[in-house]
Amino acid sequence: QVQLVESGGGLVQAGGSLRLSCTASGRPFSNYAMGWFRQAPGKVREFVAVISGSGGSTSYADSMKSRFTISRGNAKSTLYLQMNRLKPEGTDVYYCAQAYGSRVQIASVEYLYWGQGTQVTVSS
């Protein structure tokens, strides 16, 4: 049984930073790409960032490329998302997800397992 558990969300002022974590269990962590997505109520889930199984390749949504950093600690089976210079429009539930394979994937349909999400609220 695969489990993904996010943590690190919260309330932050615009311009501030947060670091999200996602701890995985149930499958060999380094075999699978891991991604972050976000979703506001009534909106489509949006791609944020992805990292390959080895950690050697990453991809970001254009609007977040200069402010967010995705990383992973395979020894700890943990995924991270460092978010800097946060904006109010970044207020969403953030989800981590584990892909079918090890390569970077942007489409949500390429992900097999999802966490329960963590709320990030950015005040103006």
Report on this model:
The structure is a single chain. The protein has 124 residues and is mostly beta strands. It is 0% helix and 50% strand. The protein is built from no helices and 11 strands. Strands 2, 4, 5, 6, 9, 10 and 11 form a 7-stranded mixed beta sheet that branches. A hairpin with a 6-residue loop joins β5 (46-51) and β6 (58-60). It is globular. It starts with a strand and ends with a strand. The relative contact order is 0.31.
Task: Explain the layout of strands and helices.
Layout: E1 3-7, E2 10-13, E3 18-25, E4 34-39, E5 46-51, E6 58-60, E7 68-73, E8 78-83, E9 92-99, E10 111-114, E11 118-123
Parallel strand pairs: 2-11
Antiparallel strand pairs: 1-3, 3-8, 4-5, 4-9, 5-6, 7-8, 9-10, 9-11
Structure at a glance:
The chain is mainly β. It has strands spanning 3-7, 10-13, 18-25, 34-39, 46-51, 58-60, 68-73, 78-83, 92-99, 111-114, 118-123.
Helix/strand structural class: mainly beta
- Binned, the helix content reads under 10%
Q: Estimate what percentage of residues fall within beta strands.
A: over 45%
Counted beta strands:
11
Mean pLDDT: 97
Main sheet record: 7 strands, mixed
Shape: globular
Q: What's the tally of helices?
A: 0
Elements, N to C (H/E): EEEEEEEEEEE
Contiguous low-pLDDT stretches (5 residues minimum) are none
Radius of gyration over C-alpha positions, nearest whole angstrom: 13 Å
Terminal-residue CA separation:
40 Å
